[in-house]
Design brief:
It is built from eleven helices and 19 strands. By secondary structure, it is α+β, with helices and mostly antiparallel strands. Strands 1, 2, 3, 6, 7, 8, 15, 16 and 17 form a nine-stranded mixed β-sheet that branches. The chain has a four-stranded antiparallel β-sheet with strand order 4-5-19-18, with no helix packed on it. It has a four-stranded antiparallel β-sheet with strand order 11-13-9-14, covered by helices on one side. The radius of gyration is 24 Å and the shape is elongated. The two termini are 28 Å apart. The relative contact order is 0.19. Bound molecules: zinc ion.
Amino acid sequence: MSPPPIQDPSTERAASVVASGEVFTSARAEIRGTDERTLAEQIALTEIEAPPFGEAARGLLMAELMKRSGLVDIETDAVGNVCGWLAPPGRGDRPVIVSAHLDTVFPPGTDVRVTRDGDRLLGPGIGDDGRGLAVLLALARAMSYSGISWSRSLLFVATVGEEGVGNLRGVRHLFGDGGVGREAAGFVSLDGAGHQSIVNQAVGSRRYRVSATGPGGHSWADWGTANPLHALAGAVAHFGGIELDGDATITVGRMGGGTSINAIPEKAWLEMEVRSLSEERLESLDQTVREQLARAVEDENTKRLHGSAAMGLEIEDLGQRPGGTTSPDEALVRAAVAATSGLGYAPELVASSTDANVPMALGIPSITLGAGGVMGRMHTLDEWYENSQGVLGVERALLTLMLLDTLS
Ligand SMILES: [Zn+2]
C-alpha cells in the first residue's frame, strides 16, 4: 500500500551536510546528554492519568515542563491543548507545528504507575503517547539550547482527544476556523515509538451505531411480524459481499439484540466502521452503508408486514476521521525521508490514523513520526517501552525540521 521511499540526491546531500554540521552535532550531544531526563519526564507524564476528556492534570505538568524546556508564551486553549512557542510568535510567518497527544485510551481510575522490568518500562500509555510527549520536550530543549537559528516560528502542542472517542477534537480545534493551525506551513506529530516509519497517508474513517426497532412478538403466534435482527443480518451479508480493492475496508464489529430465543426481537443493533485513504471513497461508502441499511429494513417490512407496525431504523454517527495524503514530493516528506536515511536507517512511508489526519485533509503538509525506542502491547494495561536508541526519535525529528528549513 505504501510507495517506496523516494531517492532525491539533492535532499540526501543536504541531509549529510546538515547531519555532519557543527550545529546538529552539538544538538545531538545535548540530546544524548539529557536522555535520562527525557526518560524521567516520560515516566512522570505517564503516571498522571489522562483518560479521554480528562487530560487537564497531565496538561498542567506538560505546561510546566514546556516552560522548563525553553518554550515561551505557554497557553492552554479552549479545548485543553497545551501550546508553547520556540520563538515568540507575531513575525507574521506561517508556523510549523510539532505535536504529541496527551490523552490515552484508559478510563479514569486505571493504575498508571510505571514499573521497571530490566530495560523495560511497563505502564498504560508509556509509549502511546508518553514517549511522544517526552520527545516533544527533548526536541524543544535541543532547539532552544543549541543556538539553531530558524527562519520560521515553531509551535509545540500537546493535544487532547487523539484516541478513539476523543475524535481528534484537539487538532480539530487547532485547525478549525480561526485556529492557529489554519495558517500552518506544516505539521509533525510525534506518536508512539520507532525511528523509521513516516506516516504520510491518513486512514480516514466513519463509525456508526445502528438500531432497528419493531413491534416484536411470539416466535410462533406472531410470525409474520418484521424481525429487526433478520433485517440487520441482511445488511451485514451485503456488506460482507462488497468487493474492495485494497484502499478501503468495511467492518461490522459488534452486533446484538433480542430478548429470547423464542421471541421476535423488538430491537437489534450493530456497530460498524468504514475506512479509506480517500475522502471521496469514504463519502461513497457512507452512502452505501446508509442505502443498504435502509433497503434491508424496507425488504423485511415488505416481506413480513401483515398488518403489524413497520420497523424503524436509526443511524447514529460515532465519529469521523478525514482521510488524505501528503505527497512524497512535498518538502516535509522529503526532509523526513532524508533525515531517516541520513541517520543510517531505511525510511518507510506508511498509512495510519493519527492527529495528522486533520491537517492532511486540509492540504497542509503533515506527517507523523515515531518518537524513538521500541514499544509493545499498545492500548493494553501491559503496554511497555524500551529505551533502545530512543534518542534517535529526538534526533530524527530535529534533523527533519532543520532540513525543512533548508529546503523551503
Ligand atoms: Zn497515539
